[in-house]
Write a structure and sequence with these properties.
With about 500 residues, the protein is α/β, with parallel strands linked by helices. About 25% of the residues lie in helices and about 20% in strands.
Length: about 500
């Protein structure tokens, strides 16, 4: 096996001969022809890698004798070392200047994160009132009756999706604006009395759809003691799946002014955002209203109102605001051209002046946003006012004269159903309620200019409108300016000379 031969046979015989105990007799028997010993060695060397036999070692040559070294040259004498010169004494060191303390490095202000206004999803699965059969053929008589009763086309509204797509009518520059991401959250307050359910729900669902969730603290529905059935269980059923929608019911009717004030006391968001219960906010509406309040809590913001037709619910509106709110000597709110001073300010302060916020002396109605605590500090609404009328003017005077400001916001657009008449009563004589409200506001805020008001409306001069002492005390406490100051600084477009002769 050592040579790799497979044809060797090994026989081991154990002999019994006493002379050969324990000795094996090994016989190598070849199976084939024998080879000589030299041949076997060559085969083995070939298998081990072709090693060659070593050559015979020859004789070593004799070592030659080493030649003797030449004698070394004598070493030259070393030159004497020169003496080291004495070191001159060091000059006295100059006094060290005192170390000026290094001013601490101011940390860099964090970069403010800014975002574009939120725009809600489109083409959501449509939502409808769950008790309306939309497969019944259209009833024109029922439609006409609903217009007369509700002062809007309720029959159509009940069959239009509650979350229909809204019209984005903003100016193109609005989409270029960015807003600080950190801003206050809002309680969206909807006060209603005997309002059509589909209109209320469309307001709610449009607010939810067109608003970033983090900016909505709640939607507060305040029912001013409605008497129609669909505002009871059906309303509660339709809002039950929305945790941010909260319903508060009054046990007695107070009227719009008082109901708004009571709703504000229920609200918990940082900002009160009042909408009528027949509105549809549009894409990007919320951030432009909230940001100015986050920067200055005494700022009140008013959205741009577009029209929703009361008969067919179609939407129309301009892409910006081209007027401001004014006032006449009857204390009626009126629309006035944008004054040149305001145009100049917008061009100076804003890269997109056409949609820059506008300082406005008055607001049209009840759609505005205001810091909730500031609303309370400023005196809420006048509790002595009746159902509706004049409260927007009184609040406008108070905001400006008592240290605040008010802005129209062109990039916040809200659709509003402008009805041809009020569908509800005024809890008494409509004319008396509205006139009482105007007289209360004029007596508190018009100062010496009150005479002009009574010259135009002499029938109001001796009318008893209740106790005003708390409102005069409020004005004193807030240290408010005069109405003459308001005219001179906020709305000089109404000079005294414009008063008609009476």
């Amino acid at each position: 096996k050592l040579f790799g031969e497979s044809n060797f046979k090994v026989d081991i015989q154990m002999g019994s001969d006493p002379h050969h105990d324990h000795q094996g007799i090994v016989e190598f028997k070849r199976a084939e022809d024998d080879h000589d010993e030299k041949k076997q060695q060559e085969d083995m060397l070939a298998r081990l890698g072709g090693l060659q036999p070593a050559k015979p070692v020859g004789l070593v040559e004799p070592v030659k004798p080493v030649e003797p070294l030449a004698p070394a040259a004598p070493i030259a004498p070393v030159a004497p070392v020169a003496p080291i010169a004495p070191v001159a004494p060091a000059a006295p060191a100059a006094p060290v200047a005192p170390v000026v303390p290094v001013a601490p490095v101011e940390p860099e202000a964090p970069v403010e994160e800014r975002v574009h206004a939120f725009t809600g999803p489109t083409k959501q699965p449509p939502m409808y009132l769950d008790f309306i059969d939309r497969n019944i053929p259209w009833n024109k008589d029922a439609e006409d009756d609903s217009k007369k009763k509700w002062k809007l086309n309720k029959y159509l509204s009940d069959r239009v999706p509650l979350n229909r797509d809204t019209h984005d009518g903003r100016h193109a520059t609005c989409s270029k604006r960015t807003y600080t991401k950190k801003m206050p959250s809002a309680s969206v307050v909807l006060v209603f009395y005997n309002e059509a359910l589909s209109v209320v729900l469309r307001t709610v669902f449009t607010v939810l759809k067109e608003s970033e969730d983090r900016l909505i603290h709640e939607i507060l529905l305040y029912d001013d003691c409605s008497t129609i059935d669909e505002l009871n269980a059906p309303l509660e059923r339709h809002i039950s799946a929305y945790p941010k929608v909260r319903l508060v019911r009054s046990k007695e009717r107070g009227g719009l002014v008082k109901a708004r004030m009571f709703a504000a006391r229920e609200a918990r968001g940082e900002v009160l955002l009042y909408l009528d219960a027949h509105c549809e906010p549009t894409p990007g509406w919320l951030e432009p209203l909230l940001e100015p309040i986050g920067l200055d809590r005494t700022t009140v913001t008013v959205p741009s109102l577009d029209a929703i037709n009361w008969e067919d619910l179609t939407y129309s509106g301009a892409d910006s605001i081209w007027v401001i709110g004014g006032v006449n000597w009857l204390m009626n709110m009126l629309w006035a051209p944008i004054p040149q001073r305001e145009t100049d300010r917008r061009q100076k302060e804003d890269p997109f002046p056409i949609t820059a916020n506008l300082r406005t002396p008055t607001m049209a109605g009840g759609l505005f946003a205001m810091d909730r605590l500031y609303f309370k500090e400023l005196g809420e609404y006048d509790e002595g006012m009746g159902v509706w009328g004049g409260e927007n003017m009184e609040l406008s005077f108070r905001i400006w004269m008592c240290g605040g400001s008010m802005l129209f916001v062109p990039c916040s657009k809200v659709g509003h159903i402008f009805r041809p008449a009020h569908p509800y009563d005024f809890m008494g004589n409509n004319g008396d309620v509205v006139s009482n409200n105007y007289i209360r506001a004029a007596r508190v805020w018009f100062d010496d200019e009150l005479d002009f008001f009574f010259k135009i409306r002499p029938q109001f001069k001796d009318k008893d409108v209740g106790d005003l002492s708390s409102r005069f005390a409020l004005r004193e406490r807030l240290q408010c300016k005069s109405y003459a100051w308001f005219i001179k600084n906020i709305f000089p477009e109404l000079p005294l000379e414009s008063l008609p002769s009476c």
